[in-house]
Amino acid sequence: MMVMSVSVPWNLLPDEISPEWVNKGDNIWQLTAATFVGLQSVPGLVILYGSIVKKKWALNSAFMALYAFAAVVVCWVGWCYQMSFGESMFPFLGRPNVALGQKFLVRRAFAGEFPSATMVFFQLMFAAITLILIAGALLGRMNFRAWMLFVPLWLTFSYTVCAFSIWSTRGWLYKLGLIDYSGGFVIHLSSGVAGFTAACWVGPRAIKDRERFPPNNILLMLAGAGLLWMGWTGFNGGDPYTVSIDASLAVLNTHVCTAMSLLTWLFLDILFFGKPSVIGATQGMITGLVCITPAAGVVQGWAAIIMGMMSGSIPWYTMMVLHKEIKVLKHVDDTMAVFHTHAMAGCLGGILVGFFADPKLCRLFYQVQDWQYYTGLAYGILNGRAKEGFKQMGVQLLGIVFVILLNVTTTTIVCLLVRAIVPLRLHEDDLQVGDDAVHGEVAYALWGDGQTLVDTANDTNLTFEKNNHEWSNVQLKASSGV
Question: Domain 21-433: which CATH class?
């Protein structure tokens, strides 16, 4: 039997490697939850984006997501984590600093009974998926080099401000008592608004692509969507930073709301269009996941069902009806409709949690006993504390306004800065070709699918074609009895 030796850093004592304050169960769950969230991006959204677009954009769309994930990892540990959760530099932003120092990583995180290394990893997954969601609005025409610049700039100047203001205990909106359980504001409202704004600056897809943009593989799209749905177990279940009753409630509410939203969207598609749409059901799934996110662990199950019905109907109405009537929505080419599925659904969830938030569950999550904070309007009226309920609703609305203004402003500045360096949009000739023009590669290199043959005796492709032709003749003769 071979005994494996464990390498211990020379300057760490055994009790420092696993100190008493580390809760092994919490640490395991937090790392697992972070991995679930990571799988939503890679491979979840990579697969979903690569399959829901036109075939000629499959590779580029998937690669935009993969690149964003890798770029965020480096920026996050380099300076963005500390800007989001570190020492305060302004009421809305932390001080830039590296998050890779050994002394920092092994000490206790700002919340939870696990090391900072675990917290850095967990929060990294949230930052990464936010940028990938923005990419959904830009598929099929953004210059990849421009995207390479956009990702670190937007992460640095927009995401960190939102995260610090709302999630850091030093942030000004956190101190006001804004409820954003797991990112309805920081991730979904931000990505929806930023994606829509960036799409406005980048410009629309080619005319033919806007007129007809069929998915190249709906079954594969469903696989990506399934990873997204199941990964949300870690997305919302990991935010109490502990293995608790609240985490269990958040996970259950997530799936209940999502299922209700999907069914509501499906019912409306059948009622008004006569056919159950697979893509429509997927959109309903996403709006349900987004809507419950700011409320997952602080609302009761019955409220999650109501939120699911509203998230499956209100974004459906804005996408299917208002989108065709409002000039600005028609003008901006939002490829994956992130404005409706993330901005609208995130905004809806932020308002509904201000109404349905249960003060008892909020006190369990936020560890506070003061009634003036975290009291949903419905419970405030029911318990004779309407003033606190209206105050909470006001804070939620203030948070929505802040996130919208921040992302419209910073996204515009970032796009203008990038445009001064490289074009935001691909050249018209490249738009007609797609993946092959941008990357020199294609997603589906199938025989006879646009490839040209060189008519030479030594050409392998030609030889293959001749052999294939001869074999077809043999089969034809056999079937005809010759």
Answer: mainly alpha
In angstroms, what CA-CA distances link 446 with 36, 349, 385, 443? 33, 44, 66, 9
Please, which residues have CB within 8 angstroms of residue 361's CB and are 6 or more apart in sequence?
A: 246, 249, 297, 298, 299, 300
The CA-based angle 305-310-313, given to 5 degrees, is: 130
Six-digit token string for 50: 């690569």
Tokens of 78: 């380099």
Alpha-carbon distance of 64 to 443, in angstroms, equals 14
Global confidence as pTM: 0.89
Q: What gap in Å lies between CA 10 and CA 23, rounded to an integer?
A: 24
Q: Determine how many CB atoms are found less than 10 A away from the CB of residue 372.
A: 12
Q: pLDDT tens for residues 45-103?
A: 999 999 999 999 999 999 999 999 999 999 999 999 999 999 989 889 999 999 998 88
ω into 43 cis (within 30 of 0): yes
Q: Residue 134 — φ and ψ, nearest 5°?
A: -60, -40
Strands 88-90 and 93-94: antiparallel
Tokens of 204: 């629309």
Question: pLDDT exceeding 90 applies to what percent of the chain?
Answer: 81
Question: In whole angstroms, what is the distance from residue 267 CA to residue 277 CA?
Answer: 10
Conformation bin of residue 25: beta by default, left when phi > 0, alpha when psi is -120 to 50: alpha
The Cβ of residue 32 has, within 10 Å, a number of other Cβ atoms equal to 14
Q: Which residues pair with 88 in a beta bridge?
A: 94
What is the spatial distance between Cα 377 and Cα 88, in angstroms, rounded to a whole number? Answer: 32
3-class secondary structure, 220: helix
Q: CATH 1.10.3430.10: which residues of the chain?
A: 21-433
DSSP result, 368-382 = ---TTSS--HHHHHH
Sort residue 126 into left (φ over 0), alpha (ψ -120 to 50) or beta. alpha
- Reported as a single tens digit per residue, the pLDDT across 371-402 is 678 999 999 999 999 999 999 999 999 999 99
Look at residues 189, 182, 188, 152 and name the one whose alpha carbon lies nearest to residue 167.
182
CA–CA distance, 302 with 201 (Å, rounded to integer): 41
